[in-house]
Design brief:
Blueprint (H helix, E strand, L loop, with lengths): L2 H11 L7 H9 L3 H15 L5 H10 L9 H30 L1
Helix pairs in contact: 1-3, 1-5, 2-3, 4-5
């Protein structure tokens, strides 16, 4: 098995053990342009769920919640974050398998 394929697929599978960190290291260390492309793609895809973080923080501090209120914005952002994270997880697994298969 080629080292380039292994590093590329490992960048995608790193979502399970070192998201963003391993693809960033591979991006810095590798000399192969294809591996760099896959590392960059996996790193950016693993950053997508973080888009909701500022909005979640804002929704926590902006709403004055009492015990009888339901924080709709906060809960909807949590649901969107979970759905997005699941989609990114599936996408990274599929891409990692595709890279290994080719």
């Amino acid at each position: 098995m080629e080292d380039g394929k292994l590093l590329s697929s490992l960048s995608y599978f790193s979502i399970f053990f070192a998201p963003v960190l391993l693809p960033f290291i591979v991006l810095l260390v590798s000399n192969d342009q294809v591996v760099k492309k896959h590392a960059k793609s996996s790193m950016l895809s693993q950053l997508i769920p973080l888009i909701f973080l500022p909005f979640l923080i804002f929704s926590i501090f902006s709403s004055v919640m009492t015990y009888d209120e339901i924080p709709v914005l906060f809960l909807s952002l949590i649901v969107l974050h979970v759905i997005t994270s699941f989609i990114v997880l599936i996408w990274n697994v599929v891409r990692g398998v595709k890279v290994l298969a080719n």
